[in-house]
Amino acid sequence: MKLSDLQSSSGEWLGGTGPEADIVISSRIRLARNLGGQPFLSSADEQQFGQLERLIREGMENAAMPGGMSYFAMQTMPMLDRQFLVERHLISREHAYGKGPRGVGLAVDETVSIMVNEEDHLRIQGLCSGLQLREAWSRVDAVDTGLDNCLKYAFSPEFGYLTVCPTNTGTGLRASVMLHLPALVMTRQIDKVFQAVSKIGLIVRGLYGEGTQASGDFYQISNQSTLGKSEIAIIENIEVVIPKIIEYEKTVRNNLMHQKHEVMEDKVWRAYAMLKYARVITSEETMDLLSAVRMGVSLGIIQDIKMSTINELFLFTQPAHLQKQKEAQLDEFERDMVRASYIRKKLQQGE
Amino acid sequence: MICESCKENNASVHMIDVVNNSKMELHLCEDCAKSKGVTIKSHMQKSSSDKGIAEGLPEIFQSLSGSQGTAGMEACSQCDTTYRQFRSSGKFGCPHCYTAFRVKLSDLLEKIHGRAEHKGKVPNSAGGEVALQKELQDLMSDLDHAVNDEAYERAAELRDRIQRLQEGPSEV
Ligand SMILES: [Zn+2]
Ligand SMILES: [Zn+2]
Fold it and tell me: DSSP states of A36-94 as a string?
């Protein structure tokens, strides 16, 4: 597989077909693993760093990977490609720009990626569309078991899988769900969600767009503790709470539709008009407007656009994706123009 | 500064730690510190002035109740990371650190995760025996819960499974 193959696809997780896809964007599972009898990267010197990368890469080649896997070295990858993988949520920002030999293994359908030499020796990650934590877990679990046969993991019966940072030890599992909650944000009730969720040991984070400005309507909910519960118990703890948040968001949306119908329609159609006719548009503005249109599609205010089109627009309007399409380095203003023209074309096709 | 224990002598042993984001301090005179079983290491003994500060108050408090006290200077035999280094960076140097700092770590992990005992997946390399023990432990704790909840049907079911596991691994 070549990286360019990814360009034409948009990843299974953006399909907008998963359960509860109008509110749940994606479900993610991440496992942290390290090799036994080897130094952690936190204390490895340059030579050890390289040896570890080689050792893991060879292990990955020998392991039976469901669906096959392609490996890419990070240090020889052009910056634009690295940024592209960050936008795809296939690698972390830290991994893209970190020092030393590192790499990433990618499943052809983009549902599983393996970061080699991130904070831990291995970070195995699975991404599915909608609310499908168990599906993501079963894919990651299978890859992990395959690797387990070829690599000796650092493990203690008492503390579980041993990680650089004790906040990840035990299962090494972080489960997260990305939610689109515009109505709760609009009515300023999102804080209540934060409070309720933090009481049961979950963490809420905003989704960051280009730069560090949080784009207001997207939130990621994940588990805090990784030790003392089984993988399924950790997943269940999140699964129990997500439907309540979905219900809350839907109730507020319906109330708004009843009480402020015109205001809602106006907000959605204005956003749509801006996207459809703008000639220069920033990444932040795009995110805000797409969020309103997404809600409009979900509420049936806009009927002739597919959810998958909106999801793709979120992804393909990000800087690295735009530049890959144009096959050129673009400065900020050029990107804003290319972005606007891309969105126009996409929305006109949709009619 | 006056010793917090006898409230007479000058306090020359000072222990500071950050627990749950709040700073905890303990100031003792050398006699009281010794009588409470604090092992005063050389870097602390020098402090006739108010400068002898040691890390790891929870451990010192532990040591006050009998066992031996250490001040975070002990290192992992495999990677030389000291407990003090770990507390300032939040990162271990190698898997063996978990063994080297095992005692202190149990407390810390309980603070972070609520529980300090692994439940969940076990790698093949850890061997079938570990996996079996793990499963048994999990079942036993489930059984405790079931009994506490007076879910006797489930409890009976769990008891059967435990018996079968104990009889032989062929049932896994
Ligand atoms: Zn005293
Ligand atoms: Zn170590």
Answer: TTS--GGG--HHHHHHHHHHHHHHHHHS--TT-EEEEESTTS-HHHHHHHHHTTSS-HH
